[in-house]
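Structure, all three chains, one model.
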Amino acid sequence: MDSMTTLASYGVLILPLLSFLLTGLWLGRKNWIASACTATFLMGLTFVLAVILALGYRTQILLHPELYPSATSVAWEHSWMTFGPGLAAHIGFYLDPISVMMVVVISFISFLVHFYSIGYMKGDKSAGRFFPLLSFFSFSMLGLVVSTNLIQTFFFWELVGAASYLLIGFWYTKPSAVAASKKAFIVTRFADAFFLMGMLVVGTQSGGFDFLHVNDPAAAVILNRSVGTGMFAFNLLSVSTVLIYLGAWGKSAMFPLHVWLPDAMEGPTPVSSLIHSATMVVAGIYLTARLFPLFAAAEGTLRVVEFTGAFTALFAALIACTQTDLKRILAFSTLSQLGLMMLSLGLGGSSEGGAVQTLAYTASMFHVFTHAFFKSLLFLSAGIVIHAIHSNDIRDAGGMRKSLSWTYAATLIACLAIAGIWPFSGFFSKEEILQSALKGGHYIALAAGLLTSVLTAFYMSRYFILIFHGTKRSHASEHGHDAHEGILMVLPVLILAVPSALIGWLGKDFFLAHILPYTAGASAAGISESHESGSFSWLVPVTSILIMSAIGAGWYFYGRKKWSAGFSEGQEPGWYRVLRNKFYVDEFYGFLVRKVAARFVATPANWTERKIINGAFDETSGVFRRLAIRLCKFQNGQVQVYLSVALLGLYALYWIGRMVH
Amino acid sequence: MCFHDSITSCMLTLTWVLPLASAAVMMLFPKDRSGLIRWFTLTANGINLALIVLLSILFIMHPPVQTGGTQTVLAFSANHAWFPLLNIRYHIGVDAISLSLMFLAGVIVFCGTLASWQIRERTKEFFILLQILAAGVFGSFISFDLFTFFVFNELTLIPTYLLIVMFGSGRKEYAAMKLNLMLMGGSALILVGIFGLFFSSGIHSFDMLELSQIHFDRSFQLWAFPALFLGFGILGNIFPFHIWSPDGHSSAPTAISMFLAGVHMKLGSYGCLRIAMYLLPEGCRPWMNVFLVLAVAGVIWGAFVAIKQKDLKYMNAYSSVSHCGLVFLGLAALNSIGLRGAVMQMLAHGFIAPAVFCIIGMIYTRTHTRLIPQMSGLMASMPFLSVCFVLAGFAALGLPGMAGFAAELNIFMGAFGSSSLAKVGAGLAVLSIIITAVYILRGVNAVLHGPALEGSHQLGDATFAEKVPLVMLLSCILVLGLYPGPISTLLDHAIQPILNNLNR
Amino acid sequence: MNLMGCLVLSVALFAIGAFGLLTRRNIIAALLSLELMVNAALINFVGFSRFGGPSTGSGTAWHMDSQAGSLFVLFAVAVTAAEMALALAIVIALYRQRKSLDLRELDSLHG
C-alpha cells in the first residue's frame, strides 16, 4: 500500500463526514445553496478518491496474488475499544474486492444523488437540513462496507438505520412520512437485535470479531459444536449465523420484514434512490457476502438465505404488478431484486468434495453492482416524472414521452436493464445468478429466479408504458417538461444511464476473475471451478425468450389494449385485491402490534406496574398509616393519661427484665 | 504541573466543602436578590467542575498503579481520624470509577444549575438545598470510610424531599414521601449491613480498604450481601423497588429530576459495586443469580411500561428503570467486561437521562404540558431543542457513536461471557433494544413531528442559557460513545482489585 | 435509721406523689405531687450518700464520694425551686387564658 492509496482510504471516510459536519453545523442553517454545493463537491471528491483507491488496490493488491493470496488487506485500523485478549473493536478500512467495489459504487451514486438533489430540493424550505443528512447517510454506508470487524459493521449498520430514519421522515409534518420513518427504524431495529446477539455469540465464542478471524475456517470449527441440552440443544454455528443473518434479513427487507421498504418511499425521491440502490438495503446483502465463508460452513444457514431470497423475489414481483404508486412499484421491484441477490448468495456454499461454489457469490455481487446503477437511475427519473406531474400516482402520468424525452430514454435503458435484456447490464448479472442456480442443481431457486425475471419484465413494461405512452391522463402531465427541471436533475440521470447500459458488458470478466469470497488456504482449490461459468448454455436463449414475451405481454395489455393501471372500484377480483393490498402483511403487523403486543403485553404490564407494584407500596404504607391513626387515639392530650401509660410501661419493662433473668 | 499529595487531597475535600460552604454563604444573602444567588451558585459549581476536571487531568497523567492485588490503590487520598472512639475515619480518595462518577456529578450539578435558571420563587431556598444535595453526593463518591459514606449519602435525602415538596408539580407530596420512604428503607438495610461489617470484621473498622482485606465469615456474607446490595439497589433503581423513581422524577423540578436520574441513582449502583460486591465477594456469587433475574426483569419491564406512558417524564423515568437494569446486568456478569460495562452504563445513563429530562423541562416551560398526545410538530418552532431531543433519544436507544451503545455492548458481551443464566438474560436484554426503539421513537415522533400545533410558532427556541447544558451533556455523550477506549482502559484498572476479590 | 428506712420512705413518698400526679385534677395539686416525687428522689440521694451504696463485695463496686450525694441534693433543691417558679408562672399564664386549672380540660396536645 502506498501512501496515496492510504490517504485516499482515509479521505473516503473523512470527506463525507466533513461534509456532514460542515453543512449540518454551519452552512445548512445559513444558506442552503452553499451547503448543497459543498456537500456535492465533497461527495464528488470522495468519488475521485474512491477511484484512486480502487486503482491503487488493483495495482498493488489484486494483481499481486503472490503477496495477497486472498486479495485482502487492511488499509488502516484504529482501536476503538478493547474487551480482552483478542477481543477488540476497531475502526478500520478493509480492502477486498467487494469492499472496494462498494466504495466506488456508493460514492459514485451518492455523488450523483447529491447533484440531483440540488435541483430536486430547490424551493423546499428545509433543504438546508437535507444535505447534511444525505452526506451522513453516505458516510455511514461507506463506513459499513469498509468495516474490518463485526462491531464496526454493527456500528455503522445502526448509523445507516438512524440516517434512513431521519431521511425517510424528512418531511416531518407529513404523518405518513413520520409513520414510515418509525416503521423503517423499528423493523430494522428488530432485526438488528438478533444481529447483535449473533455477533456477540460469534465474537465471544470464537474469540474475535475481525472478519479475517471470523471467516477463517478455524473459527467455524470452534463454533461448530452443540450447546444446551435436551430440547434446547442446538448447533452454535448454525444458530449464530442465522441470528446474524436475521439482521441482514431486516436491513435487506426480506419477507416478512420487508414492510418498511415500500413505505420508505415517503422520503424525498433522492433518498429513495440512495436507499434502494447503494445504501441501506444493500447492507444486508453485503453483510451476508462479507460473512459468506462462515455462513457456508454452517449447515442450513445458506438454505435459509436461499429460500428467503427466493420467496421474497417472487412475492414482491407479484405485488409489483398491481401497484399504482410510481415509487411503490419501484420499491417492490427492489425487494424482488434483493431477493434475487439473497437467493444467489444462498446458492453458494460447499458442494460435495469440499469445493466452495463461488459462482453464485460472484453473481450476487455482480447483481448488487449493476442493480445499484439502474435502480438509482429508475428512482431519479421517477423523481423527474413526479416533479412533472405533481403526483406519485401512475394513473396521473401517461404520454410523457414527448415532454420528458431525456427521461424517457434514460428510463427505457433502466427498464431494459432491470428486465435483463441483452446487452444491458442487468442481463449479465441476472444470467449469472440463473446459471449458478442451474449448475448447483437448485431447481426451485432456478424456477423462482426465472419466474421473477418474467414478472419483472412484465411489471417494468407496465410501468414504462403507463408513464410514457398512451394519452396524458391528468392536467398536470400536460405541462411537465424535463427541460423545466433543469440540467441539474437531468444530467445525473443521463450520466447514470451510461453504466446502466454498459457496465455489465465491461464488468463481467472482471467480476468472474476477481470477486471471490475470502478464502483462506485450503479451500482455494474450489475456486478454479467457477471460472468456466462463462460457457454458453441453453439457459440464455430460454430466459431471453421468456423475458421478451413478458415484455410483449406488457406492451400488448397496457400499450395496445390500453389497460388502465388497475381495476375500477368494485370490479377487481379477489386475488387482485390480495395482491394490491400486498398480501395484507401490513395489516397483519398492525394487528400484531396494536392488538396483540399492545393489548396483551404493554397494557397489562402498565396495569401491573400501577396496581400491583405501586399498589403494594401504597398498601404497605396504608397499613402503617391506619395503624398510626389507631395509635393516635391514645394521644388524647391528657398529661395524666400519658404519665399512667409511661408508668405502666416502666412496670412492663421491669417484668420483662425479670423474665429475661 | 506537579502537585503535592496533600494539596490534591485538599482539592478533593474541597469538592464537597465548596457546595456546602456556598450554601452557608447563601443563607446570608437577602432572599430577593435571586440574580445574585443564581450567579453565585453557578460560579461555585463552575469552580467545582473545574476542580474535578483538573483532578481528572492529574489522574489521567499519573493514574495510580494498581498492584494487582485485591486492594484498590487510591489517588489523592487522605486518611485522618475523625471520631477515634468508634474508629470512624475521614478516609478519602478516588479511583477511576469514583472519579468518573465525580465528573458526571460535577457536570450534572452545573447543568442542573443552568436548567433551574428560570426558577423565580424561593430561589434562595432552592439553590441552598441544591448545594447541600451536591455536597452529599460529592462527599459520598470520595469517601472510603463506610460511616462517612453513609452520612454523606443520607445528607442527600432530606434536601431531595424538600426540593420535590417545595418546587415540584403534580402529586408532589405523595411522590416525595414515597421517594424518601423507599430510600430510607434502603438506608436502613445499608446501615444494618455496615454495622454487620464493622462488628464481624474483628478489627472494628469502617475503612473500606481495610475491610476489603478481611475474609468475612461465609454465613455472615450470605445475609449481609443481600442487605447491602438491595439497600443500594433500591437507590440504584432495581426492579421491583424502582417505583420511587417514576413518581419522584416526574414530580420533581427539572434540575432535581436530572440530579436524581443522573447522579443519585448512580450512588446506589456505585455502592452495590464498591461496597456490597467488593467487600462481600463470597456472599455475592450465590446471590447474584437472584439479582440477575431482577436486573433482566427490570430491563424488559421498564421498557414495556414506558411504551404506555403519556407523560414524557414518566416515559423517561421508566426508560431509566430499563437502563439501570442494564447496570445491574453488567454487575451480575461478574467479569471484567461486564463490570466495566456497568460503570460505563452508569456514566452513559448519567448523561443521557438528565439530557432528556432537561429537554423535557425546557419543552414544558414553553408548552406547559408534558403529555405526549397534547404535543405535535415542535420541530418547526424549536429546531435546536428538537435536534437535541432526537440526539438524546438516539443515545437512549443505544445508537452507536453515543455513550449508551459503548456501555451496552460491554454489558451484553460480559453477560454472554458469563454463566448460562447470564447468557439467557443477556439474550433477553438484547431484545429490549427493540422495545426501547419503540417507545423512544413514539415519543420523539409524536412530540417533534407531525403537523405543528396552532400558535406553536411563537413558542421560541432554546435561549443561550438553555443551550449550554444541552451542548455540554450531548458532548459528553458523544465523546464517551465515539472514543470509549481510554476511559474503558482506566476503568479496567480500577475494576481489577474488585474482580480479584471476587475471584479470590 | 438505716438505708432501708430511707428507701422505704422514699418509695412511699414517690408512690404518694405519683398517685397524686395521676389523679388530682387541679394543676397546683399535681405540681405539689410532682414536688413530692422529686423529693423522694432526693431522699434517695441523701440516703445513699449517708449510708453508702449497695456493697457487692467486689472491688468493682461503684464508690461515690459521700459528699457528692448531698451536694446533688442541694443543687437539685435549687433547681427544683427555679423549676417551680417557672411552672407556677406558666400556671398563672394558663389561668389567665383559660380561666381554669382543671387538668382534664388542658388537652390541646392531643394528636
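Chain B is about 75% helix and 5% strand.
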